[in-house]
Amino acid sequence: MDDAARTELASLRKSIDNIDAALVHLLAERFKCTQSVGRLKAATGMAPSDPERERVQIARLRALAEEAELDPAFAEKFLTFIVAEVIHHHEQIAGQTPHAE
Ligand SMILES: O=C(O)C(=O)C[C@]1(C(=O)O)C=C[C@@H](O)C=C1
């Protein structure tokens, strides 16, 4: 690898590291929100998952991905992965919370 390529790779990796840091911060904020949703659902006896809400989110994210030239199938897979983890958290919270009814 020549010097110019080495410099370009280092610069691109710096941007990748910044983007990865932003993703971690964004995900941390999203999980803080969903933890609150989980507590609210558990306290009021709501089901952990909401398939209709997920349907709307997937349709919206797929459209946004297309606009942004990101593979919509990847966007859907990514959201589904995150939501599965959220539902798992919701179930754990529900197991530790008495229902308000
Ligand atoms: O909006 C909700 O009801 C949530 O519990 C949050 C969330 C999400 O992570 O976006 C998670 C689980 C539901 O199935 C739908 C959406």
Automatic annotation (TrEMBL):
<dbReference type="InterPro" id="IPR036979">
    <property type="entry name" value="CM_dom_sf"/>
</dbReference>
<dbReference type="GO" id="GO:0046417">
    <property type="term" value="P:chorismate metabolic process"/>
</dbReference>
<dbReference type="InterPro" id="IPR010951">
    <property type="entry name" value="CM_bact"/>
</dbReference>
<feature type="domain" description="Chorismate mutase">
    <location>
        <begin position="3"/>
        <end position="94"/>
    </location>
</feature>
<dbReference type="GO" id="GO:0004106">
    <property type="term" value="F:chorismate mutase activity"/>
</dbReference>
<dbReference type="Pfam" id="PF01817">
    <property type="entry name" value="CM_2"/>
</dbReference>
<dbReference type="GO" id="GO:0009697">
    <property type="term" value="P:salicylic acid biosynthetic process"/>
</dbReference>
<keyword id="KW-0413">Isomerase</keyword>
<dbReference type="InterPro" id="IPR036263">
    <property type="entry name" value="Chorismate_II_sf"/>
</dbReference>
<dbReference type="InterPro" id="IPR002701">
    <property type="entry name" value="CM_II_prokaryot"/>
</dbReference>
<dbReference type="InterPro" id="IPR051331">
    <property type="entry name" value="Chorismate_mutase-related"/>
</dbReference>
<protein>
    <submittedName>
        <fullName>Chorismate mutase</fullName>
    </submittedName>
</protein>
